[in-house]
Each structure stands twice: as structure tokens, then as C-alpha cells.
User: What shape does this take?
Amino acid sequence: MRYAIVIEDAGDNYSAYVPDLPGCVATGSTLEETEAAMRDAIMFHLDGLRADNLPIPKASSRVEYVEVAA
Assistant: This one.
């Protein structure tokens, strides 16, 4: 599966979350570290859902950019 993630600059580090998996979050010192941590967090989250016999949410979020004049 391919889930959209949102990575935000948190000042001294980065934080990330998955819109399609509420509660699935991760942080890291760099973008690369945050992305890797998010990948692990998604797998952990999905394993927990499976263990609890809960449905796996489909990846349905889309990411787009909109340009506006500043």
C-alpha cells in the first residue's frame, strides 16, 4: 500500500502523520530520518490493527500543491 504522509518542520526536528491512519505519527531529526520513522510507524500501526482484527484503512488521501500570489 502507498499512504500519503505529511511532514512538518517543527523547529529543531520534523514531525509527520498519516491522514488515513489517525494516531499514526513519527518524528526525526532530518527529513530522511522522519520518513524512515514514518515507514516503521505505519507498519507498526497496521500490525496493531491486524492483531485487533480491525479493518486496514484504504489509502485515499491525495496530496496536491496550489500556488497563490504572496
